[in-house]
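Bumping my old thread because nobody answered last time. Still need a sequence for this structure:
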């Protein structure tokens, strides 16, 4: 009888937490409304940095980045590179993020790079990047590269 009472007590304690965990509101997805805020951009940067920092030492080296599996990005069909997309473009960007040129990128350097990118897109400096600002920024980049704006 005691074991039955103990099991019922444990179930009574655990059941409300299980129900609460299943019904807890989910945080809104970044850009669910089509607008990227500075806070969402920094959260994204932190997630990207965590993916690069495989040994969890707070910095990422060229060796860590080289060991990551390559994903087809900027491709027409998953294999054929899109015109105008240079291989290794991300590597050059990360090299520029290394502000003190010590060969590793810290979380602070990575966040600073993300903040600069956000500021370039946030044309009206309201702390939010909407679809019109993203399109204007993309068109500007394409024009600098010799492509056609609006593609």
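Sorry it took so long. Here it is:
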């Amino acid at each position: 009888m005691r074991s039955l009472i103990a099991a019922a007590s444990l179930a009574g304690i655990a059941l409300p937490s299980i129900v609460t965990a299943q019904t807890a509101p989910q945080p809104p997805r970044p850009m669910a409304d089509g607008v990227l805020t500075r806070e969402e951009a920094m959260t994204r940067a932190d997630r990207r940095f965590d993916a690069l920092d495989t040994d969890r030492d707070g910095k990422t080296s060229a060796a860590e980045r080289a060991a990551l599996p390559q994903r087809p990005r900027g491709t027409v069909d998953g294999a054929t590179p899109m015109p105008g997309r240079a291989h290794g473009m991300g590597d050059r960007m990360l090299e520029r993020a290394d502000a003190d040129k010590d060969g590793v990128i810290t979380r602070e350097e990575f966040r600073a790079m993300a903040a600069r990118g956000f500021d370039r897109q946030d044309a009206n400096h309201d702390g939010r990047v909407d679809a019109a600002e993203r399109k204007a920024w993309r068109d500007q980049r394409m024009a600098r590269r010799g492509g056609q704006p609006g593609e």
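The first strand starts at residue 36 and ends at 37. Let me know if any region looks off to you.
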